[in-house]
Amino acid sequence: MWGFGDSPHPPPPPSHPGIINAEKSEFNEDQAACGKLCIRRCEFGAEEEWLTLCPEEFLTGHYWALFDGHGGPAAAILAANTLHSCLRRQLEAVVEGLVATRPPMHLSGRCICPSDPQFVEEKGIKAEDLVIGALESAFQECDEVIGRELEASGQVGGCTALVAVSLQGKLYVANAGDSRAILVRRDEIRPLSSEFTPETERQRIQQLAFLYPELLAGEFTRLEFPRRLKGDDLGQKVLFRDHHMRGWSYKRVDKSDLKYPLIHGQGRQARLLGTLAVSRGLGDHQLRVLDTNIQLKPFLLSVPQVTVLDVDQLELQEDDVVVMATDGLWDVLSNEQVAWLVRSFLPGNQEDPHSLSAGWSSQVLEAGPDADTQHTGEGRRSHSGRAGVLR
After folding, report:
1. Are 304 and 139 in contact (CB under 8 A)?
2. Cα(329)–Cα(179) distance, rounded to whole angstroms?
3. Contact between residue 172 and residue 308 where contact means Cβ atoms under 8 Å apart
């Protein structure tokens, strides 16, 4: 559990004292980062290089992030130490547009077409769109860095990423994975992100398989059926749906339909190519389906979905908080249960962050017999996931 950071630029790695690690090693698959974003003012020079005009900060914001790794901790650790730097660079590249009344068509200041401002206005482009674009580009840049680093070191793995950025009176929540953020107010619970799983992105994944069937190597069917088909289903008319369908129809089963489904299972048990439970995230460049050469990376997106919260207009109160957590929490508690915990526990436990973290963990455990835990194959329980509260 952690809150607003006030560390110097750049934002700190997960070992920063503003982050309570919940008795976990700094090298586990769950990572967090927070800190201050100091964005410098730059100008596009005649030699087409970005030149720093002022070494002092020009625009400041704050950054919080959670990373849930799989296949090893390497990707999550790299993301926690890299993504904030990628974001700072992307924001510095557009900072002149951020502080303008309306983002100009040309950052160089040269207006080639006199109607450029009109075109920008007609498309409704605002400063917040530049922040959204910077977040999307930063996630992609970080994904490329992780890919290069893991390949060079012979490591594997990936991670989901949930990021919150406070800048110019707005809160930007960027999510790539199955983590979740909610705003808890006295009389309101507002979702700030959507979770991405093979099920929620079924149509996108199926469409990719339709456009590039070679990605399935003849081993999988892109069609969805209510259950895995068997030999006895051959020739029968069964329910199915393809990438262009939200509803269902019937088709007669042929041999190709008996292949393993592109997406198999329901809910949290759904798997992409029988391997991965998430459809967006960072890393996984080397991930392949077991005993095949089929890559999962083409089906995975590193681009986040970004939600914008106008903090100034909301008139937030002292006891309003944003809860960010990985699936280790949301698998066992609902938005309403988490909101109840926040409202009942936080008011009297704000002074000592360590006792706050310990108290939060105990409250979560008391909320249900299996809260904040996941069962292992032998019936044992292991603590999983990470949660943060922003005030």
Report:
1. yes
2. 9
3. yes
Tokens of 206: 């199926």
Q: How far apart are CA 378 and CA 380, in angstroms?
A: 6
Rg of the chain, C-alpha, whole Å: 23
Q: pLDDT digits over 84-115, tens only? A: 999 999 999 999 889 888 898 888 777 778 88
Cα 77–Cα 70–Cα 284 angle in degrees, nearest 5:
85
Alpha-carbon span 202 to 219, nearest angstrom: 18
pTM for the full predicted model: 0.85
Q: Give yes or no for a contact between 205 and 279, defined as CB atoms under 8 angstroms apart.
A: yes
Q: Are 138 and 94 in contact (CB under 8 A)?
A: no
Q: In what order do the strands lie in the sheet with 188-191?
A: 188-191, 180-185, 321-325, 387-390
Pair of tokens at residue 15: 């070992």
Q: What is the DSSP string of 123-178?
A: TT--HHHHHHHHHHHHHHHHHHHHHHHHHHHT---EEEEEEEEEETTEEEEEEESS
Q: Distances from the Cα of 18 to the Cαs of 3, 5, 14, 21, 64, in angstroms?
A: 7, 6, 9, 10, 11
User: What would the pLDDT profile of 15-66 be if each residue is shown by its tens digit?
Assistant: 444 555 555 666 788 999 999 988 887 655 444 444 444 455 578 899 999 9
